[in-house]
């Protein structure tokens, strides 16, 4: 449950704006409470979307208990829900949040990376790549107010973190004996600069709110009860910009980083499978998972 943050770190989230799985029920909709005309919530087992077509914004809630880890099924449902919003031109932005109180996302699901077959590792990593690319290159306005889920948060246009000492955000791969992929390293480096990223990645740092704001991994830190209202204010500012100008500028700024992965996806999958299959790495992950079980016990 980590690669992007510790499972012990709770969170909440803000702003982002799609293989059907058994029981996903993505076609099931119902009118959202308080929604305007055409505002119908839809969802799957692990993702709930509450759209307000009148405002051009949707709220996407993660509900993959206990800590919204990015399992293969959860990754797939997130992409499907995102595609559905992107294909509906009435939406220009999305607020990413959690259906789980105090938890946004604990990050990648270590159980998908431990004790499985090479084919499973390859399939899982392709799904991780796909989510990152879809979020990073989306024309929709994105954002996050996270503690945990750093991989997802870094793809967003704006990040708001709730001011709670229990919350933190960062990439702690090295603490687990693994390393961040180059495209995630590039995203962090784009966000906080080379030196800060080098230090954070080598030490596997998780930043509490004040430090996260200082280093620039989040854009605002606000009282927990103000997260939602701050998110709405932030998304309104981004949506005040003409879409074509904002989208083209975003694409220009992010093209080089995204293209590196697009042109090296197969090699990146092969490198991941080779690395994660090593006996030493599997042993390290197993020990970490055992510690988590003991802590929960």
Notes on the structure:
- By secondary structure, the chain is of the alpha/beta class.
- Helices cover 44% and strands 12% of the residues.
- The chain has 10 helices and 9 strands.
- The protein has helices at residues 72-86, 118-136, 150-154, 182-192, 194-203, 209-215, 227-239, 243-262, 265-276, 279-296; strands at 29-31, 40-43, 47-52, 57-62, 93-98, 160-162, 169-170, 206-207, 220-222.
- Strands 1-2-3-4-5 form a 5-stranded mixed beta sheet, sandwiched between helices. The chain has a two-stranded parallel sheet with strand order 6-9.
- Helix 1 packs parallel to helix 2 (118-136) and helix 2 packs across helix 9 (265-276).
- The two termini are 17 Å apart.
Task: Throw out a few tags for this protein.
single chain; 297 residues; alpha/beta; five-stranded mixed β-sheet; two-stranded parallel ribbon; 10 helices; globular; disordered N terminus
What is the helical fraction, as a range of percent?
40-55%
Distance linking N and C termini: 17 Å
The class by helix and strand makeup works out as alpha/beta
Mean pLDDT: 85
The quaternary structure here is single chain
Number of strands: 9
- Sum up the overall morphology in one term: globular
- What radius of gyration results from the CA coordinates? 18 Å
Helical run tally: 10
Most strands sheet:
5 strands, mixed
Can you write the helix and strand succession as a string? EEEEHEHHEEHHEHEHHHH
Strand content: 5-15%
List segments where confidence is low: pLDDT < 50 over at least 5 consecutive residues. 1-38
Lateral arrangement of strands in the main beta sheet: 1-2-3-4-5
């Amino acid at each position: 449950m980590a690669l992007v943050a510790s499972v012990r770190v709770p969170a909440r989230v803000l702003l982002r704006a799609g293989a059907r799985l058994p029981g996903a029920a993505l076609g099931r909709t119902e009118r959202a409470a308080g929604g305007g005309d055409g505002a119908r919530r839809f969802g799957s087992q692990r993702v709930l979307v509450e759209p307000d077509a009148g405002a051009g914004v949707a709220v996407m809630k993660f509900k993959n208990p206990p800590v919204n880890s990015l399992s293969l099924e959860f990754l797939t449902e997130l992409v499907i829900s995102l595609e559905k919003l992107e294909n509906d031109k009435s939406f220009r932005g999305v607020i990413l949040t959690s259906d789980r109180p105090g938890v946004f996302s604990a990050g990648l699901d270590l159980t998908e990376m431990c004790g499985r077959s090479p084919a499973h590792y390859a399939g899982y990593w392709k799904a991780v790549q796909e989510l990152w690319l879809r979020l990073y290159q989306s024309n929709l306005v994105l954002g996050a107010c996270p503690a945990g889920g750093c991989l997802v948060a870094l793809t967003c246009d704006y990040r708001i973190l709730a001011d709670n000492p229990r919350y933190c955000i960062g990439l702690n791969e090295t603490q687990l004996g693994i390393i961040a992929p180059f495209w995630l390293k590039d995203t962090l480096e784009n966000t906080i600069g080379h030196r800060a990223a080098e230090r954070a990645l080598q030490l596997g740092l998780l930043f509490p709110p004040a430090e996260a704001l200082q280093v620039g991994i989040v854009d605002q830190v606000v009282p927990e009860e103000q997260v939602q209202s701050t998110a709405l204010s932030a998304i309104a500012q981004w949506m005040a910009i003409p879409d074509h100008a904002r989208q083209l500028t975003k694409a220009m700024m992010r093209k080089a980083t995204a293209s590196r992965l697009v042109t090296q996806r197969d090699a990146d999958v092969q490198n991941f499978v080779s690395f994660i299959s090593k006996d030493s790495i599997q042993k390290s992950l197993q020990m970490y998972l055992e510690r988590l079980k003991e802590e929960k016990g």
